[in-house]
């Protein structure tokens, strides 16, 4: 199946700026001290406090879309104030990367949900977006993208190269990612969601974001190798296609099912000696499926 990129105009959103609140620990500052680490390929892993699981109450209920009517939204000033409150909540959680928080302060989450839910746009909740899907909680978006950012702590708050998102949903997380990476590819298997995400993102004129319609389990080889891959759906294992398309030194963050039937957040790093994998907190994402719908 042919996978086409949208043709967005030049980007007009301002770039993220440095935050002033208390610093978030970098990987080299705080060694990982939890049990459950599972090296793969003979590699020993050392992780930062940024990889420590979040408290249970912060991680339940997520994934990605809905319609929006900008004409019915509240005033720009009130929405900005709501984003500021959301950003302050995220700052209070250890391990959230400043650049991620700043990107989420900029991107209008309310533009990606139904106007009837506008009052909940910046609260700590997942919201329905159609097709049986939801937009992830702000803490989940910040958590997953912070795990990626801390893999590139020495790159001035930006992810070098390209990143791939599996599961575009409503397009919100992809919009946040566009502030963090040089180039973003986002693939969605449900045509209706792909089209709605395209409509949501068009007014933002994000020039470094490419939306793709296709099977996310197969990734998008033409865009690789990727510096990072982030999935908004969970399968029984990390697809081999993702590992193959990940560049050396790159990182995958994705929910994955365990033998006990739970779904946990998995971090996989691709290093010269193989793969190193870490299981983090329990999460609840929609299942990862093959094909298109």
Description:
- With 293 residues, this protein is an alpha/beta fold.
- It has a single domain, classed as Rossmann fold (3-Layer(aba) Sandwich).
- It has 6 helices and 12 strands.
- α2 packs across α3.
- The chain starts with 36 loop residues before the first strand and ends in a 6-residue tail after the last strand.
- One of its GO terms (cellular component) is cytoplasm.
- This is Protein-L-isoaspartate O-methyltransferase.
- One of its GO terms (biological process) is methylation.
Please name the defining characteristics of this protein.
alpha/beta; Rossmann fold; 12 strands; 20% helix; disordered N terminus
Arrangement of strands in the largest sheet: 1-11-10-9-7-4-5-6
- The unreliable regions are 1-49, 56-73
- Determine the mean pLDDT: 79
Give the overall form.
globular
| Major sheet characteristics | 8 strands, mixed
N/C terminus separation? 13 Å
CATH architecture heading:
3-Layer(aba) Sandwich
- The CATH class is Alpha Beta
Helix count, DSSP H or I runs of 4 or more residues = 6
Order of helices and strands: EHHEEHEHEHEEEHEEEE
| CATH homologous superfamily heading | Vaccinia Virus protein VP39
CATH topology grouping: Rossmann fold
GO molecular function: protein-L-isoaspartate (D-aspartate) O-methyltransferase activity
Keywords: Cytoplasm, Methyltransferase, S-adenosyl-L-methionine, Transferase
Biased composition (Basic and acidic residues): 27-37
Subcellular location: Cytoplasm
């Amino acid at each position: 199946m042919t996978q086409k990129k949208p043709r967005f105009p030049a980007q007009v959103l301002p770039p993220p700026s440095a935050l002033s609140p208390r610093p978030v620990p970098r990987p080299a500052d705080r060694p990982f001290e939890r049990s459950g680490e599972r090296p793969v390929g003979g590699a020993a892993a050392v992780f930062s406090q940024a990889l420590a699981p979040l408290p249970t109450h912060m991680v339940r209920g997520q994934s990605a879309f809905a319609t929006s009517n900008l004409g019915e939204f509240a005033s720009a000033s009130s929405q900005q104030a709501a984003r500021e409150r959301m950003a302050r909540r995220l700052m209070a959680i250890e391990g959230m990367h400043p650049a991620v928080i700043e990107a989420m302060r900029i991107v209008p989450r309310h533009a990606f949900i139904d106007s009837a839910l506008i009052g909940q746009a910046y609260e700590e909740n997942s919201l329905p977006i159609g097709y049986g899907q939801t937009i992830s909680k702000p803490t989940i978006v910040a958590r997953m993208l912070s795990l990626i950012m801390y893999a590139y702590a020495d790159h001035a708050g930006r992810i070098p190269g390209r990143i791939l998102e599996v599961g575009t949903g409503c397009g919100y997380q992809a919009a946040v990612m566009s502030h963090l990476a040089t180039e973003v590819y986002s693939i969605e298997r449900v045509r209706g969601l792909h089209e709605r995400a395209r409509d949501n993102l068009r007014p933002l004129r994000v020039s470094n974001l490419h939306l793709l319609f296709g099977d996310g389990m197969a990734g998008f080889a033409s865009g690789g190798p990727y510096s990072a891959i982030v999935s908004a759906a969970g399968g029984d294992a990390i697809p081999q296609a993702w590992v193959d398309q990940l560049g050396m030194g790159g990182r995958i963050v994705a929910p994955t099912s365990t033998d006990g039937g739970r779904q946990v957040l998995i971090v996989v790093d691709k290093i010269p000696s193989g793969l190193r994998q870490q299981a983090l907190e329990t999460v609840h994402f929609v299942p990862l499926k093959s094909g298109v719908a």
